[in-house]
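Me: Here is a favour to ask of a fellow structure person. Could you put it straight underneath, so I can go through it closely?

Assistant:
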Amino acid sequence: MPAMVSRQNRDMDARDAFRETLRTMVGPALRRQGFLGSGSTWRRRNPHGDWAVVNVQKSAWGDREAVSAYVNLAIVPEAVRRFTASTTARPLPRQPTEWHGVWRARLDPLPTDHRWGRDWDFGDGTRADDFGSALVDRLDSYGVPVLERLLDRDRFLSMLRDPMREKLELGRVTTWSADSMAALIMSDDGPGRDLDGLLEKLRTDAAKAADPEWGARVLDVVGWIEARLAS
C-alpha cells in the first residue's frame, strides 16, 4: 500500500499538498517499480541504456485552492539522444526529459473516475490521500506496464517500423522519421544485414525526398551511423 499523506497535510494549500503527495506516495511507488528520481520526474533504463520517463507536470495556473496536473510518459532511446547532441553541437544532458521522447503519452485518470476532472485536478488538500492513491493505481495498472513493454527493444523497433502492429491505448510516435530513429537504435548492436538494408533504404528515401532539408537530415543520420560503426 502507498504511504498516506499525514492528517496535518490535509490543511496545506493545494500546491503544498500536491508536492507532498508526489514525495510521499508517487515517488515511493515508482521507485518500487525500478524508477529513480525525485521531485516530479522519475526515470528507468533498460540494458541498452534507453530511458522510460514519468513526469508529473503542474499546470501553470493554480493557487492555494486548487491545482491541475498532467502525467507525461516518454521513451527516449539513448542512441537517438546521442545523435541529437552530436548534430546540435550541444553537450549531452546527463538525463533526458519527457520532451526528448521518441514516443510520448499523457496518462489521464480512468474515464470512469470523475473525481479529478479531465486532467488530474487537485483540491485544497482534503483529498490528498485519495488523489495520491488514484494516481499510483493508474501508474501501477497501466502507465508503468506500457513503459515496460516499450523498453523492450524489439517491441519498440516493431512499433517504429509498423505503428499499427502495437495497438497501445495511449501515446504516439513523435519523430520526423521513424526509419531514421529505428536505424539509430539498431546501430547499438553494430553492423548487420537488417541495419544495412535500412541504411540503403534511407539513402534512397533521401535522394527522392521532395523536401531537400528532410533528405539532408536523413543523410546526417546515415553518416552518423556509418561513422559510429567504423569506429
